[in-house]
Amino acid sequence: MLIFAVTGMGGIGKTALALEAAHRARAEGWFPGGTLFVDLRGYDDDPVTADQAVLALLDALGVRDRDLPPTTGRQYDAYRALLAERRDRMLLILDNASDPTQYVPLLPGTDRHRVLITSRDRPDALPVRLIDLETLDPDDSVALVTRALHGTDERDDRPAREPDALRELADLCGHLPLALQIAAGMLRRRRHRDIASVVAEIRDAGDATAVLDHASPGADLYGRSLVLRPVLETSYRRLPPDQARLLRLLCLAPGAETGTEAVAALADLGTESVLSLLEDLAATHLVAPVRGGNGTASEVRWRLHDLVRGFGAGVVAEDAGLREEGEAARERVLGYYQRWAEAADDRLRWLPGMEEPERFRDRGQALAWLDGERAALVAAVEWGREERFADAAVRLAQYLGKFLDWRRYFDDWITVAEAAREAARLAGDRLAEAVSWDHLGLALQEAGRVEEAIDAHHKARDLYQTTGDRHREASAWNNLGLALQEAGRPEEAIDAHHRARDLYQTTGDRYREASAWNNLGLALQEAGRVEEAIDAHHRARDLYQTAGDRYREASAWNNLGLALRKAGRVEEAIKAYSTCLELYQEYEDWYGDGQTLHNLALAHQAAHRPAEARAAYLQSADAFTRANAPDRAAQARARAAELPD
Question: What local confidence, expressed as pLDDT, does residue 117 receive?
C-alpha cells in the first residue's frame, strides 16, 4: 500500500494541492473507483477522531442507517471489507491530520488503493512517502496575486502598474499562499486603492498578520476562514513547553537563519539537547533546517518563516515574564557572538609571536565562521540601539571591521559602524564613539562616498584628541589621509600621513608606523614626488618584514611597484609585483591579487610585452571575478582584448 503525506506549515497550500492532484488524477483515469475525502480538522479545538471519520467514510461508501454496524469494531471491519472488495483503485484523502491516531485506523488493508494524508506534522514514525511543501518562489507569488485579481476583473491593471509594490507585498506575505490569498482578497475589496496602500499599511503596523487578519475577506473555496494568526496559534499551542519556549526564543534571534550553537546559547542548553528540540520543531514545519557544507550538526542552520517569527515575537511582547526571558536570551547570544567574533578577528590579525586565538586554527576557519554568521552578526550589532545591549554591541562591531573589509561587504560595514556609533553614544563611551566614526569613514571611502568619509575621520580625530588617545589619533590621521588621497587632495593627504607617522613614532608603534609610511608613499606618488614615494615604500616594506606581517608586506611591494613604474624603472617594478603575488598566495585576497595582476599587466605593456600583459590582464579578470568585482573584471578583459596579437 502506497501512502503519501503532503506536509508543511499552516497556510502553505496542502489541501489545495491534494484536491488539485485528485482532480487531475481522476481526469487521467488513475482512480476509476473514485475518491474519498475526509477533513480530520486536526488543529481545531475539537479534532475529528478516527471513530468519527470511519462513519463518514462508510456513509460515502453507501453504508448508512440500518446497514450501519452497531459497534465501532464492526464498523472498521465493514469499512476495510468494502475497500478490499473494490477491484477499481480508489484514492483516500485524509486531510488536515495532526496525529497518527486520527488516520492509522483508517488505512485500507490492501495495496490496491492509494492514501494521501495532509498534515503540518511530519509522520516520521511511519513508512510514508513525504512531500514537504515550501513557500512559493517570488515570481509564483506575484503570479498568484495577479491571477486572483484578474479572475475577478480582467481590467484590473494594478499588477502591471505597480510591479515593485506587488513584489514587496509578496515579500511581506512571506510568499505563503494563505497570506497571498488574503492580500488578494483585500485588494479586491479595495479595488479603487493601489497595491502600495496595503504595503504601506503593513509596514506602518510592523505586523503583516495583524493587518491581513483585520481585513480578511472571509472564507476560502473550502469553507475555511482566511485568517493567519489562528493558524499559527493552533500550531504553537500544540507544542510541549520546552519546544514552545525554544520557538519563542528563536523568534528573537538576530538574522533570518541561526546556527545550532547560537540557538543553544539563546536557550541556555547543550548542543545535543537543543538539536533534539530543533528537530522536533522541524517535524512540525515551524522551523526549517538549512544544511551547511559538510552536513555536521554544527553547520546546520535553522530558518523561521517571517510570519512565524513575527507571531512568536508578538507572543513574547504580550507577557512581561516572557519579555524578560527573551531579553536574557538575547544577552546570552550576543555574548556568544562577541566571544567568537573576537577570536576570529584575533586570528585574522594574528602575527608570528602572538598568542594563539581560541577555536580557529587558521584564517580559513575564522573566515568560514564569520561568513556563515555574517547576517546574524550584523543584526546583533543593531541591537546596540537598545541601552541594555549597547556596550556589548559596540565591542562586537569592533571585531567585525577587519572581516567586512576583507570580504568587501561595505554596505554591511557601514550598517555596523553606524549602529556602533549610536550605541557608543547611548552608552556614553566617547572613545568607542571615536572608533566607530573611524571605521565608518573607512567603510564609506570603500563604498565611494569619499566626502562623507573625510567628515567621519575628522570627527574621529577630534574625539580621540578630546579623550587624549594619541595612538588612535594617529590611526584617524592615517585613515583621513587615505580619504583625502581618494578625493584628489594629495598635499593634504601627505600632511595627514606625516602626522600619523610622527604620532606612531612617538608612541613607539613601529608596526603601524609601517602603515603610515606605506600610505604616505601613495600620497607622494599622487603629488608627483616619486623618488620620495619609493623611499617611503621601502621603509614600509622593511618594517612589515620586521613585524612578520607577510600580507601587508605584499601590499608594500605592490605600492613600491607602482612608484618604480612611474619612475621608469619597469623591470624593477615587475620584480616587485611578482614578489607581491608570491606573498599573496598564502591568502584569499582575490581583490588584492586582481589589483596587483592589473598593475603587472601595465608594467609589461610599458616594457612592450603584449603577450605577457594579456595573460596578466586575464588572470586579473579571474581574480576580480572571485572577489565579486565584476566591473573591474570586465575592465581587465577589455584591456586584454585591446592588445595586439
Answer: 96
